[in-house]
Amino acid sequence: MTEMRRLIAGNWKMNGVGSALTEAEALAEALKAGPAAMRVALCPPATLIERLARTVEGSAVEVGGQDCRAEASGAFTGDVAAAMLADAGAGLVILGHSERRSFHGETDADVAAKVGAALAAGLEPIVCVGETLEQREAGQAVTVVQAQVAGSLPDALIGKAFAVAYEPVWAIGTGLTPTVEQIEEVHRAVRAAMVERLGETARKAPILYGGSVKPSNAAEILNTPEVGGALVGGASLKAADFLGIIRAA
User: Fold this and answer.
1) Torsion angle of alpha carbons 15, 20, 25, 27, nearest 10°?
2) Which of 131, 167, 187, 226 is an active site residue?
């Protein structure tokens, strides 16, 4: 890592079948016509990774997965190993998303183990942290995210390419967005925790903001200090909406 590489990543979550690839194709063609100021990635369901990688081949669109198993292989029905994602064409992987932490009970230690597996497979991790509404209202937002950073980032990340994504859980898919001041406060806290955990090289890793990012608020968010990009949910499903965010960068 020589410098911070800003990133806008789209998380399709459990959305999309083959017909959705037309949106990825439209995005790729638009970026060929007008390159983006930041890196751009799409993280579709595992069933689409290989087909999406073929669809955007030769374009600026990078491809990622949404999760991986910590183990390299084994009797884990329904799970996907990091090497499988890489074999399908992924170069990145989202880990520790709040939906994984809440619906699947993933701990910081679980996330750290997955990060190690991702690195071993040559994938670039996007590690997610964020507080719930109850934690925010209790004044614990900074404490919570700093603890998640400390527990979710293993030593193996030192000197490697990765990103941290701050997603206030209460803002995901709700249409609610923190104030710019709140975003800046948490991003600065995340950066401090990253540096404390991994040293000065952690200053080169972008901190993405996620949580109801849309074309109408993207410019203000992306110009906030310590915001190095965005992790976008629903707005990444349509090329036109996602491009609106990308062009705001």
Assistant:
1) -50
2) 167
Of the candidates 72, 120, 116, the one whose C-alpha atom is nearest the C-alpha of residue 96 is: 116
Domain formed by 7-248, architecture = Alpha-Beta Barrel (3.20)
For residues 89-114, b (16+ Cβ closer than 10 Å) or e, as one string? bbbbbbbbbbbbbeeeebebebbbbb
Question: pLDDT tens digits for 224-242?
Answer: 999 999 999 999 999 999 9
> What's residue 176's pLDDT?
78
The two tokens of residue 54 are: 């073929």
104 as an active site residue: the answer is no
Q: Measured between alpha carbons, how far is residue 85 from residues 72, 94, 100, 158, 212 in Å?
A: 11, 11, 17, 22, 27
User: Are 125 and 92 within 8 A, CB to CB?
Assistant: yes
**pLDDT band for position 3 (cuts 50, 70, 90):** low
Catalytic residue (choose from 97, 124, 131, 187) = 97
Residue 97 annotated to the active site: yes
